[in-house]
Structures are given as C-alpha cells and as structure tokens.
C-alpha cells in the first residue's frame, strides 16, 4: 500500500550534488535518447522541427516522408506550389502558416546560406519559423553544438517539478538551466527530459511509482511517494 504523500521542500534543489544525481539518473534511464523527429540531414531536421510546433513528433513523422520525397532540397521546397505544401502538412495544424514558414526558410537557406543550414544560433534564427528552441534542436542534434538547452513543454514542466527553475517562460527557463547544467550535458539532458516527460512524468497524472527520479523529486503534484 502506497504511503500517504507529504509535500517536502528540497533543502537546496540546485545543489551541485543533487543536479549531478538528476543527470546521472536520466543518463542511466535513457542511455540511447535521441531526437524523435525522423531526418537524414540538417535541412530535414530544421523543417521537421518547424512543423512540430503545437503538434506531436509522431504526426510530423507521418507527413515528412512525402514532403521530403517531393521536395528534398531547400531549392525545390522554395520553388514548390504553396497549396501542395499545405496539402501535405495539413494534419500538423496551423498548416497555412507553417507552409509559408518552411517555404520561406528554404528560400532564405538558398539565398543567404548557399543552401546549407548554418551552424550558429545567430544565423539560424534568421530563418522564418525558427526561434531558439528550433535552433538548439538542429545545432545540438545534427551538428553536436551545445548552443543552449532545448526547452519544449516537457522540459519546461519537468524542470519546474524538479525545482530546477521557477520560471514559466521558455527563454527564462533555458537561462536557469544553463546556470546549473554543465554545458557538456545540455544536448543529452534535453533528449532525456523529453523522453521522460513523454513516458513517465506526464502532464496530468505523472507515473511517480515508475519514476527513476522519484526519490529526488518533491513536486506538489506527485501521485505516489516512497518516503
């Protein structure tokens, strides 16, 4: 029988030893965590990440095979009929705005960057539809460049539950995480947190009884406690 849950305060949630324990546990729990968006190159990952806004990676992975089969390069996507792009990506939601963004991003890649996805966050955010999160995803997952911490809904929710931040704005959350997470962990940390958020620490009813981080967590919405 589960013990009654009593909310406790973590003495110092940002203590280096606690953060190290969180990182170690995540790494052991998800040793092979990678980006869930299907892609073969930086261009495909950029477009897929733009499409992933307000929808699931599963949905994006269903539409990108046809999209990239028909328009495999920035040049071809930039020249594609907009209604055809809209048709292909319709199920991802906000498809008209997304179609304009991915086509405009493709054109900028051709006109400004010679058809190649740049390797700095300053250049990446020049692409329509690309903000810090998308730039961090591409730079980290494809180029292996730790330009920042990817903060999606899962990373934001889990970071607050683990008391790594009190912020709600993704940019502010990213800044907080960068202060306590060593830079050489930024890329994997995001992958691991996203996997954990999807599989265990879900939004409405976290599966605390199955959580490898449970003993390190004192979140107010825990559904089970071993202590």
What's this, in brief?
By secondary structure, the protein is mainly α.
Describe the structure.
There is one protein chain. It contains eleven helices and no strands. The chain has two domains: 16-33 and 149-216, Helix-hairpin-Helix base-excision DNA repair enzymes (C-terminal) (Endonuclease Iii, domain 2, Orthogonal Bundle), CATH 1.10.1670; 42-141, Endonuclease III, domain 1. The model has no long low-confidence stretch (mean pLDDT 95). Helix 1 (16-29) packs across helix 11, helix 2 (42-51) runs antiparallel to helix 8 and helix 9 (153-161) packs across helix 11. The protein starts with 15 loop residues before the first helix and ends in a 28-residue tail after the last helix. With 227 residues, the protein is mostly helical. The chain has helices at residues 16-29, 42-51, 57-70, 74-79, 82-89, 95-113, 121-124, 132-141, 153-161, 170-180, 186-199. Helices cover 52% and strands 0% of the residues. The chain is elongated.
Structural key phrases:
227 residues, Endonuclease III, domain 1, 2 domains, 0% strand, elongated
């Amino acid at each position: 029988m589960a013990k009654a849950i009593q909310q406790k305060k973590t003495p110092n949630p940002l203590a280096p030893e606690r953060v190290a324990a969180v990182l170690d546990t995540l790494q052991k729990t998800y040793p092979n965590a990678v980006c869930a968006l299907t892609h073969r190159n930086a261009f495909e990952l950029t477009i897929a990440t733009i499409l992933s806004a307000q929808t699931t990676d599963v949905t994006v992975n269903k539409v990108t095979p046809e999209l990239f089969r028909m328009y495999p390069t920035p040049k071809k996507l930039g020249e594609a009929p907009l209604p055809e792009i809209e048709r292909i990506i319709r199920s991802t939601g906000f498809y008209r705005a997304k179609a304009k963004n991915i086509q405009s991003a493709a054109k900028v890649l051709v006109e400004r960057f010679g058809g190649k996805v740049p390797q700095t966050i300053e250049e990446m955010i020049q692409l329509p539809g690309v903000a810090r999160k998308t730039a961090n995803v591409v730079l980290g997952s494809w180029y292996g460049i730790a330009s920042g911490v990817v903060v999606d809904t899962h990373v934001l929710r889990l970071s607050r539950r683990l008391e790594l931040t009190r912020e709600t704005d993704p940019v502010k959350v990213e800044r907080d995480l960068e202060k306590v997470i060593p830079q050489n962990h930024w890329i994997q940390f995001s992958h691991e947190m996203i996997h954990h958020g999807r599989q265990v620490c879900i939004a409405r009813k976290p599966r605390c009884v199955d959580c490898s981080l449970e003993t390190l967590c004192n979140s107010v919405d825990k559904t089970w406690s071993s202590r």
